[in-house]
Specification:
Bound molecules: FE2/S2 (inorganic) cluster
CATH architecture of the largest domain: 3-Layer(aba) Sandwich
Radius of gyration: 18 Å
CATH superfamily of the largest domain: Glutaredoxin
CATH topology of the largest domain: Glutaredoxin
Number of strands: 4
Largest sheet: 4 strands, mixed
Length: about 160
């Protein structure tokens, strides 16, 4: 693995990409669905994949990059198996979400927006999670953890392999 966390990509995943490009051959408007499905295959969109998609669609690479950077759903870097969203909305802020985020960051040794080297966790900044009554709140994947204190964080993180 290189310093930017990029993993070697298995050939079988590239074979699936080729099938995908074949399936959408000659459908110029299909760039976004192809990017979505490629991201499902690879977990994110590494540069060689974007290059191959650009080639497949006969588009400049810059155009494909433009689409991936415009939509928040696309990820150009590897993401952790678990995504942690610590709410930074007003209700959570008032109830000490900064301390929660700080503890999560310290436990994992990464900043918000980062991914651990073992690809276990990614921390994503987020506004209101819609569970203000449980403030301060964080979500890990689809699970909501509410009424948090900083001391609860290590045990909660341990629940996720
Ligand atoms: S402000 Fe945190 S859930 Fe709404």
């Amino acid at each position: 693995m290189c310093a930017c966390n990029h993993q070697p990509v298995p050939d079988s995943e590239y074979a699936r990409l080729e099938e995908l490009l074949q399936e959408y051959k000659n459908q110029r408007g299909a760039l976004i669905p192809v990017l979505q499905r490629a991201q499902e295959i690879f977990g994110y969109l590494p540069e060689p994949v974007l290059r191959r998609i650009a080639e497949g669609f006969r588009l400049p690479l810059s155009r494909v990059y433009g689409v991936t950077t415009f939509y928040a759903q696309f990820h150009l870097k590897p993401r952790g198996r678990h995504v942690i969203r610590v709410c930074q909305g007003t209700a959570c802020h008032v109830r000490g979400s900064a301390r929660i985020l700080d503890r999560v960051q310290r436990e994992l040794g990464i900043e918000s927006g980062g991914t651990t080297e073992d690809l276990r966790f990614t921390i994503e900044p987020v506004a209101c999670l819609g569970a203000c009554g449980l403030a301060p709140v964080m979500m890990i994947d689809d699970n909501t953890h509410g009424r948090l204190t900083a001391d609860m964080i290590p045990k909660i993180l341990d629940l996720y392999e």
